[in-house]
Structure formats: structure tokens, C-alpha cells
Write a structure and sequence with these properties.
This protein is of the alpha/beta class and 185 residues long. The chain has two domains: 98 residues, Aldehyde Dehydrogenase, Chain A, domain 2 (3-Layer(aba) Sandwich), CATH 3.40.309.10; 73 residues, 3-Layer(aba) Sandwich (Aldehyde Dehydrogenase, Chain A, domain 2), CATH 3.40.309.10. The longest helix is centred in the first third of the chain and has 16 residues. The protein starts with a helix and ends in a 14-residue tail after the last helix.
Amino acid sequence: MNDAAQIARRAAQAYRLGPTDDPATQLGPLVNANQFKRVQALIQTGIDEGARLVTGGTGRPDGIGKGYYARPTVFADVTPEMTIAHEEIFGPVLSMIPYDSEEQAIEIANGTDYGLAAYVQSADVARARKVGRALRAGGVHLNYPPADFGAPFGGYKRSGNGREWGEAGLREYLETKALVGYGVD
């Protein structure tokens, strides 16, 4: 197992799952039964399509017998053609796709039908900004910053139109009028 997969495995296994009203909880349940079933099906699809399961998998986490809790799951050796590489899973699933160059990484990231958010990690902030500018996502998070509710939130492509939060989100509530015609100043 490569270093990145080992780091991701340890991080996933360290999550403290539990009820959302418990301050020690880091990861609560999925929103409802339909989303739980969808996430479980996508995890099984990843396995069936040949992605390497590093940790997690289908079913509820050990010790949790009810609720819509999903096991934090990490896949390695994912290819861009696999379903888990190009679907918005909205569950605790990480799909690790290897790449050989920065350009290839950007091409892979932009090669999906979705673009809600992207994350860039780099010790070189200028390089992270360069990559971030090239990504087709509504929000690009550099070096995993805390949530900024003053920044606009929304996606590109099939991840939706429109924005919430910040000034851009407020514009969604405005009524805009255009007067169009000849002789109108």
C-alpha cells in the first residue's frame, strides 16, 4: 500500500462516529434511508468495478446497529472511468486516483460532469492557487481552510447553478429589472 493510501486509511479509521448532538462526534449519519442505500450501492459498485478497497466498505460501522451511518471508506487505484470517480457520492467515501503530472490531475478533476467543490493541498501556495484557478468547481479550497460562510457556495456543471452565502447568495433574492429599447437612456 502506498503512503497516501496508508495516510487516508488511518484518517478514515480515526473518525469518531456518533449522534450529531454529541460534541465528540466527527461524523454523523447520512440524511435518510435513500441516501444510505445510494452510498452503499456506490461503495459496492466501486468494489465491483475493481477499485482497491483500503478501508471501510458496505454496511454500518462496527458497533452501530441502526441508523444511517456509513463506514468511512477509502478506495485506491481508482480510474477516471469508474463510477465512484465521476459521481457525487455525498457520503464518507474517498476515491484516490493516481496521476503523473499536475496537468493530468487537473484534466482528471475537470473530466467529470460535476463541479461542486475541489480541494488542493500544497506547501507552495502560489502553485496551489494556480491549480485552483484551473479547476472547474464552484468552490476550491486551498490547504483545507475552515468554512467561510462569507464566500459564495454553489457548483458548476451538473452540480447546480446559483449561489448561497456571501454577497453572491444575497443577489439570488434580488429582483432585477432591465429596460431595453430605443431612446432609453
